[in-house]
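Appendix C. Worked example: IS110 family transposase
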Amino acid sequence: MTSAGTADMVGQWVFGGVDSHADTIHVAVVTGNGGHLADAEFPTTSAGYAAALAFLSAHGDVAAIGVEGTASYGTGFTHAARADGLTVVEVNRPDRAERRRSGKSDPIDAYAAARAALSGRASSTPKDETVTGIRALHNAARSTVKARTAAMNQIGHILIGAPDTIRAHYRALDGKPLIDALARLRPTGDAVHTAVLTALKSLARRVKALAAEHDELTAVLDAVVTGHNPGLRAAYGVGPDTAAQLLITAGGNRDRLRTEASFAALCGVAPVPASSGKTNRHRLSRGGDRAANAALYRIALVRMSSDRRTRDYVTRQSTAGRTKKEIIRLLKRAIAREVFRYLTTTVTVPDIADLRPARQAKNITLTAVAHHFGVRPAVISCIERGTRRDDDLANAYRNWLQAA
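Step 2, the predicted output written as structure tokens:
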């Protein structure tokens, strides 16, 4: 630890910086003009966090603390600092050019975080705990999909090299019928056949178990996301997975999102200026949160395939000479603007609890309703259950039921 006479510095404004790790945090203190005061290392325990805060306060009045990794290794310190009434800002990792110039060590990174808080380059409020449960469920559900895909790929690879009799027997099957058939296997035959069939049966059962686990996790995730932000979940084309990802990217505290343009940049859908001399143009952003970008992309695809207004927009843009990629880019930017409104304001979702009882009371089937409005029965079912929002269709449906 280096020190510069802390006794006579109490009363001045100082800024802190934290480089966080799994077992330790390195804390640095700088003055209001960026001068280095001191740095020290502390364990990632409650006692360590208290000692780190006391170390910061001993050098003056703490104006702000820049923390690298507020949602990962720095979570514990961030909570402790905010509970103590201190201002914490989120600091990004130094870029490669900066690290090539100044090197890499815990004290260097901690001082860089402190200077980022001092200069205002780091100004984002850390994410609060309201999306912690959503993040956990989302990660668990995603991992079941990856594991299920890996198991299905293994089944395909085994069948490629399996004996001819096994390949011939299951060649005509694919997807769920294949998994169901393999899960019911009773391995028989010589040693090779028995081993191959046993492996296929084990993998098929794994696929079925993972599918059931994914459905269970998705149902819980859907309930949590809907309770957290019903307006976002009810938006057209927004499912449990995409809603969860957008909430994780934005964080639960609304004050993190200042403008819809900054949110679009965060999601990597804001056009980036690429002008030079007489050339005046923009290019596609390749930065931002790629998972959020992928979520907006999936919403755009859903709307392009089944939303009437979006399909009309795509037709107009295609007639104007835009390519499909350009149209999708425009749609993602527009969807980001809409999502920002759901994330930053309370959007009231119209009550649809009366639709299903009214339909059932008049003994009208979903198929009959779907046929009348020219949509699939699943669309009407989703509107009745509140998992899909289409206010115009819901109102027309309610008026039709009243007149039926």
